[in-house]
Amino acid sequence: MKRRNLAAVALAALTGLCAPALHAQTKWDLAAAYPATNFHTENLAQFISDVDKGSGGKLKITLHANAALFKAPEIKRAVQGAQAQLGEILLANFQNEWQIFGVDGLPFLADSYDASMKLYKAQKPFLEKKLAEQGMVLLYAVAWPPQGIYTKKPVNNAADLKGIKWRAYSPATARIAELVGAQPVTVQAAEFSQALATGVVESTMTSGATGVDSKLYEHLKYYYDTQAWLPKNALIMNKKAFDALDKPVQEAVLKAAADAETRGWAASRRVNEDTLAKLKAEGMQVVPPSSQLKADMAKVGDTMLKEWLDKAGPDGKALIDAYRK
After folding, report:
1. For residue 23, what pLDDT band results from cuts at 50, 70 and 90?
2. How many domains are there within the chain?
């Protein structure tokens, strides 16, 4: 009898030890390149909270903001190699790998939120197919506010940009610098403020949101609101990690992603208004571009679209045709 009781106790203890494993949480890492206060990062934080609730706590995601886990150019490869299960990337950063990634960085192709969404819908099937081939899933994408030109001195035309040290963050922004005769210097968001303080760069083309994040008003005087393009951040996921989740948790992730995309685009519009007001309040001159500057930059856009189509091949033509329908 005693022997039976001991066996029962041992079995109960073993079952107790195994119980947590049966209900174990899955833990993921999400690598992001922008500060915790950036609207994209805040959207990621809400996405994580929604996944936690939607999965009943079965999937816990840790957010690593401000390039704390991987630098911006490293994030895509990290997700592909399952070093992080999730990562947020600026699609245009990867144009040299595959031209379609950079279509939303072409100046004046899509220069409003409505046009940017139309371009995203045309681009999305191509993105999903390419990422699937690379073992990843596109969860959602959200546009940055429209891009403008920041400078220390007044700029009336493209010639005024000649020789200026221009912060580039993507192949497209580097090419713009080359076409206007500026000196492109690659600087990621996390190092931007220091680069300005040390004189490594003295101008850039980016959004009002980045202008506020990096306190560009402390170093630069002018923001020309050219509304040149609206590049997108995309949240990507390792496919094997996703496939390993049970169906209800997968559905929770996809639902949270769909909500994050809708929320993110609305937030981007609000941030655009708020950040331009903030730049003005901090003493920066926020002005429309002169007609000559706009015409000069439109020529840059035409040149870059032609170059892009030559490199992008049939997929690029199909994408632009779908966008222009």
Report:
1. low
2. 1
